[in-house]
Write a structure and sequence with these properties.
Elements lengths: L4 E2 L2 H17 L41 H14 L14 E4 L5 E8 L2 E5 L3 E2 L4 H14 L3 E7 L1 H7 L6 E11 L4 H6 L2 H12 L2 E6 L1 H4 L3 H12 L22 E7 L2 E11 L4 E9 L7 H15 L4 E3 L3 E2 L13 H13 L6 H9 L5 E9 L6 H12 L3 H31 L1
Parallel strand pairs: 1-8, 4-6, 11-12
Antiparallel strand pairs: 2-3, 3-4, 3-5, 6-14, 7-12, 7-13, 7-14, 8-9, 9-10, 10-11
Helix pairs in contact: 6-9
Length: 425
């Protein structure tokens, strides 16, 4: 193939059958349903049939590595997952709660006396209100608030105008119908130029089977290069970088330059939309310009060939492209986020990320929210969200980033000083 990426015909056929099975899993009944209906709210497994106590504090261990719970959560995600972030609840560091009233799971992390939920409860749409109320009740009994981060239209419509909950607009996520991708690319000369730039540098993209990609040293090395170049220490929660050990159902597209891995893309299923979330786009140190665009192009083309109906690049924080005004956010939050957007570019380039996603000419921008189970969205809720991503004190994380930036600039200054001395010698 001459598009800069390659997928073997047999592998493509096998993947098509595999993902057809994934997207049809939700149509069959889940065996052993009693194991998915524990008798309480939060707790520690007591035997192979998992049981829970009614106390959040009863479990302080890392649930993310319990294979039985992961299996149950995965089955529920593949059957009911509608939020773009649904599959991410199986990522390391996210705890799992199972409903006692129906087939449902919630993925969350603990932060600042708040349970920060990944997206929304995963369940049948008609049970969403019941499951959210059950989860919030369990949290309330342990003195915790609940904040749904990354909530989309279903949960937003449930609490819009409610006096018991408050919500803020986080930004928007761009979406496409993969079958329209070729037409979009054909009308974007600048994007085609970027793709050709990478192809002309001999970059090729291929889809790797999960067993090959899982823990592959070349991918891990590429990931470490990418993390080392970030302005902030590694983030977690819904931007967890360590996904290469949990690739079941995910797809991995790898960019290579003359046989050397220079980047990779990880896509996670969004089952109820027959679609995909591009969860990670990793570029190594030696990736030529256009590598990220080429990986996205290869992935979406492959999804189109398999008749997928939805793909998103995920949340673009602070984006104003959703058809909802940010004037609905509290004044203090609008001021704070505007300041971060203007002055935090060293650590996170909000505008740059938004521009990158925009150049692919999204067909739609979906609003994304944070919903807090209190009448007013407070600074404490924002701090809890920040703590969920930093997996510790956000203040300490920023201080560490500032120290790293100072050390980097000191190194640049020393290099310039040495060069000047040599020129004057």
């Amino acid at each position: 193939m001459n598009r800069g990426y390659k997928i073997s015909r047999k592998f493509h056929s096998d993947r098509k059958k595999f993902y057809q099975q994934i997207f049809h899993l939700r149509t069959r009944s889940i065996q052993g349903a009693s194991a998915l209906h524990p008798v309480g709210a939060f707790g520690r497994p007591q035997s192979r049939v998992i049981r829970y106590t009614n106390d959040v504090a009863a479990t302080r261990h890392e649930i993310g590595f319990d294979s039985e719970q992961l299996r149950q959560a995965r089955e529920l995600v593949l059957r009911y997952g509608w939020n773009a972030t649904a599959y991410q609840i199986i990522n390391p560091g996210i705890e799992l709660w199972f409903s006692s009233i129906c087939e449902a799971v919630v993925g969350f992390v603990r932060a600042h006396n708040t349970l920060v939920v990944a997206g929304a409860p995963i369940c049948a749409r008609e049970r969403l209100a019941d499951v959210a109320a059950e989860f919030e009740g369990a949290a309330w009994r342990d003195g915790k608030r609940v904040c749904y981060f990354g909530a989309e239209a279903r949960l937003e419509s449930l609490y819009r105008g409610a006096t018991t909950h408050s919500m803020v607009l986080l930004g928007a996520q761009p979406t496409w119908r993969p079958l329209n991708w070729l037409k979009i690319i054909s009308h974007r000369a600048s994007l085609r130029a970027q793709l050709n730039r990478a192809r002309n540098k001999s970059v090729s993209v291929s889809e790797w089977p999960s067993p090959q990609a899982a823990g592959h040293p070349a991918l891990q090395y590429c990931l470490q290069e990418w993390l080392a170049a970030r302005g902030l220490p590694p983030m977690h929660f819904l931007v967890e970088p360590q996904t290469l050990e949990r690739l079941a159902d995910r797809r991995v597209f790898v960019a290579e330059l003359k046989g050397q891995v220079v980047g990779f893309l990880v896509a996670s299923p969004v089952p109820l939309r027959n679609g995909w979330l591009v969860e990670q786009i990793i570029r190594g140190r030696w990736a030529p310009n256009g590598t990220a665009e080429l990986m996205i192009d290869a992935a979406v083309r492959a999804m189109a060939e398999e008749k997928s109906e939805y793909v998103t690049l995920g949340l673009s924080p602070l984006s104003r492209r959703a058809a909802i005004s940010q004037e609905e956010n509290p004044l203090w939050l609008r001021w704070l986020l505007s300041w971060a957007q203007a002055h935090g570019r060293r650590f996170y380039n909000f505008d740059g990320l938004d521009s990158f996603k925009t150049k692919f000419q999204p067909e739609r921008w979906e609003p994304v929210f944070a919903i807090f189970n209190a009448p007013h969205f407070s600074p404490a809720a924002l701090y809890a969200i920040a703590e969920a991503f930093t997996k510790g004190s956000p203040i300490r994380t920023v201080a560490s980033a500032l120290l790293k930036a100072a050390q980097t600039e000191a190194g640049w200054f020393a290099d310039r000083f040495r060069i000047t001395d040599k020129q004057n010698a």
